[in-house]
Amino acid sequence: MAKANNTVDVVLIGGGIMSATLGSLISLLEPTWKIEIFERLDDVALESSNPWNNAGTGHAAHCELNYTRELPDGSIDISKAVTINEQFQVSREFWNHLVTAGLIGDQSTFLTSTPHMTFVRGEKNVDFLRRRHATLVAHPLFSDLEFSDDPEVIAQWAPLLMEDRHGDEPVAATRAASGTDVDFGKLTRSLFDHLTSQGHHLNLQHEVRDLRKRRDGSWDVKVRDLSWNASPARRTVNARFVFVGAGGGALPLLQKSGIKEIRGYGGFPISGQFLRTTNPEIVAKHHAKVYGKADVGAPPMSVPHLDTRVVDGQASVMFGPYAGFSTKYLKRGSLLDLFTSIRPGNIVTMVGAGLDNIDLTAYLVKEVAKTPEAKFRTLRSFMPTAHPKDWELITAGQRVQVMKRDKAKGGRLEFGTDVVTSADGTIAGLLGASPGASTATSAMIDLLQRCFPEDSLRWAPTIAAIAPSSHAGSWDTPEERDALESFEVAAEPGA
Q1: Cross-strand bridge partners of residue 310
Q2: What InterPro entries is this protein classified in (predicted)?
Q3: From start to end of 359-409, where are the E strands?
Q4: pLDDT at res. 492
Q5: DSSP calls for 27-83
Q6: Mean pLDDT of 258-286
Q7: Rounded (10°) CA dihedral 45, 192, 105, 46
Q8: Whether 400 contacts 417, CB under 8 Å
Q9: Other CB atoms within 10 Å distance of the CB of residue 296
Q10: Which residues neighbour 249 within 8 Å (Cβ) at sequence distance 6 or greater?
Q11: pLDDT computed for residue 295 by the predictor
Q12: What is 288-301 written as a DSSP string?
């Protein structure tokens, strides 16, 4: 076999936050390594990392009820919430390091102070939220979480929730004033700007078509240049390590690689829409990310939320998502994506997961069939004064939920992210959706430790310097919480 026409240390596939984070980490750990990035669209951060394609929550598990499970005895399991909060702190520390070192712009360009709230209605839900708060607030990471079942207090926190709300239905809310809104599009572009300034090559309009492993353990990455005047249109890049960070496109590419670790994996695509307003009067009355409770059978990513969004310094308010279904794995993907991902090794997984999630299928059918009027009524359950003239419907990013083998059921649906690595650590990819972007740094540090175990000890001091909490374990005492580094974030626009 002829040698590829150029050789690099690392190939990153996909121009999203995951590739940007991994590339930035590698550039700090191994400044002499050569990195090449391939993105099939004409810019980075146009799929799930685009700010209008995601909730931009800055997941810290303050407001998302699906991270705090109620156990049969009535107690609340907060272990997942604690893990996600810790992982978000790692991301915050890494971003702060990059800013302090002058490698990317100020955090205020992509991070805005935005309280995180949970809002529920009905006696049963109020009781659950009260117990959830009591459990969370006992942990140092959530010690500042506030609770109230007083409508007047909730109205002070988020006026739009209570304005013109009639009746005596019990309501309650929690608020974490330390929450943030993250413009992951801006952050992703800043990270790639840093990488290219260090001499690494970003190839836009380049689609990876195939991956072939060589006898020496390296990978031939077969790429097609999609630009109209490309010459040559095809080339092959040889790499010692490949990361597939292509969002929904990761599963098909990992399947093409032939690694045994991807066998049995499937993907269930879910699309979505948001209502958005830029009306200054509405935006001025709402400064929070308010999460509610998901409908029965709804996936966690479909939890309704009324969110302040700050994109390129401009604030708006979004509500949704309204779940839908498409067979595409990417927003700008192909309708054949789902079908071409079906392989002999994952048929049982996909059928088993489908049979185990009949309620999800029924929910998606109901959502797709919803009229515009029905969708707007859902918004009004959060914001009674909402008027259609102020809102526009936008399409959110495509999400692909992971399907994994299950001995008992054949397959199960995973609501989270999963890092898949080959046994020899020469290729890895990230599958799944939320909390994704918010925990990117922790996920990519874990990936590096799994794929480069021989380098981990040598890298440990640098990683400890750029993301101290990645080595800190859990925060179990108030002193450990106080030791968290403080971060500069932008205030509310216009404040």
Answers
A1: 315
A2: FAD/NAD-bd_sf, MQO
A3: 392-395, 399-406
A4: 54
A5: HHH-TT--EEEEESSSSSS-STTSTTSS------SSS-GGGSEEPTTS-EE-HHHHH
A6: 92
A7: -10
A8: no
A9: 8
A10: 14, 329, 330, 333, 337
A11: 65
A12: SEEE--PPTT--GG
Distance CA 353, CA 288 (A): 35
pLDDT digits (tens, 9 = 90+) for 355-389: 888 777 777 788 778 888 888 998 999 999 999 99
Q: What is the CATH number of the domain that holds 168?
A: 3.50.50.60
Total domains, the chain: 1
Q: Is the pLDDT of residue 326 over 90?
A: no
Tell which wins on pLDDT, 434 or 26.
26
In this predicted structure, the answer to whether residue 486 has a pLDDT above a threshold of 60 is: no
Would you say residue 486 lies in a domain? no
For residue 114, the Cα-to-chain-centroid distance in whole angstroms is: 18
Residue 159, phi then psi, degrees to nearest 5: -55, -35
pLDDT in tens, 52-87: 887 667 678 899 898 899 999 999 999 999 999 999
Q: Which of 63, 58, 80, 59 is nearest to 71 (CA)?
A: 80
Can you give the pLDDT at residue 229?
78
3 state DSSP class of 287: coil
* Nearest alpha carbon to residue 411 among 348, 339, 454: 348
Residue 100: inside a domain: yes
pLDDT of 200-226, one tens digit each?
A: 999 999 999 999 999 999 999 999 999
Asked if residue 108 has pLDDT above 70, the reply is yes
Both tokens of residue 43? 């810019």
- pLDDT of 252 higher than 70: yes
Kindly state whether residue 479 falls inside one of the protein's structural domains. no
Of 417, 224, 243, 249, nearest to 341 by C-alpha is: 249
CA 87 – CA 82 distance, rounded (Å): 9
- Average pLDDT in the 174-203 region? 95
Q: Could you tell me the residue range of the domain that residue 447 belongs to?
A: 6-471
- The number of beta carbons lying within 10 Å of the beta carbon of residue 162 is 20
DSSP code of 180? E
Q: Is 491 domain-assigned?
A: no
Asked whether the beta carbons of 30 and 450 are under 8 A apart, the reply is no
Answer for the pair 34, 10: CB distance below 8 angstroms, yes or no: yes
Which carries the bigger pLDDT value, residue 304 or residue 33? 33
